[in-house]
Amino acid sequence: MEKLKILREFSLFENIPTAALEPLASYFIPRRFERGERLWREGNEALSFVFVVEGQVKIVKYRNDGGETILGVFGADEVVGHLAVYRQIPYPASAYALEDTLTLQIHRSHFFGTIRDHSALMEALLQDMMQRNQELVGRLHDLSVSDTEQRLALLFMKFAESVGRRVAQESGEMGVVVELPLSRAEIACLINVRVETAIRFMSKWGKEGLVRTDGGGFTILDYERLSALARAMG
């Protein structure tokens, strides 16, 4: 495995000089998880940074009633659970592989011990933390949107932008395939609505030729219309 080349795919490291990144790369350890396998449990000590190389990871918070709230879904070239590692606090939620997943992991002592000697790495870390805070603010804004259909449209657009793949349809129009095996219940959790509500809107979209869903993910059939739906109600 060419760890240095793989790490370059992550925004945190894309502009880091090779001389600074090479010492850090040597500490990364590959680890694979099968679909449904837990990466960590809520309350575990956050000891390592986890970089997703292949696959998908969901972050889950369990409620007192036994239900779950999905806080986010992360794919290739993203880092998961890093805020807890930064702050050296226990993980506030659990993480599971949505599909067979390959990660690169580095213990926080090796990470922080190395970046202290490289100003470029330290600056990149600070920039990354600022970006994550902005993403959290955006996530809170999305959940504050009162219209359920808009929240669902915003969620699907974010999936399309992060893990979508453009494909030509039989009609000649371009669609976006998102290979993300989320159940209706998991989608409902992500926008904080009842499962029945999410199913109703997704069925409506299917009949309107907006989005087609299947067990392996979904296809946005009319990207422009879904994008307009996400924006128009804001």
TrEMBL record:
Q: What is this protein called?
A: Crp/Fnr family transcriptional regulator
Specify the Cyclic nucleotide-binding domain's residue ranges. 12-132
Residues covered by the HTH crp-type domain: 146-224
Entry-linked CDD domains: CAP_ED
Q: Which Gene3D superfamilies match?
A: Jelly Rolls (2.60.120.10), Winged helix-like DNA-binding domain superfamily/Winged helix DNA-binding domain (1.10.10.10)
A Gene Ontology cellular-component term: cytosol
What species is this protein from?
Lujinxingia vulgaris
Q: Which UniProt keywords apply?
A: DNA-binding, Transcription, Transcription regulation
Any one GO molecular-function label of the UniProt entry? DNA binding
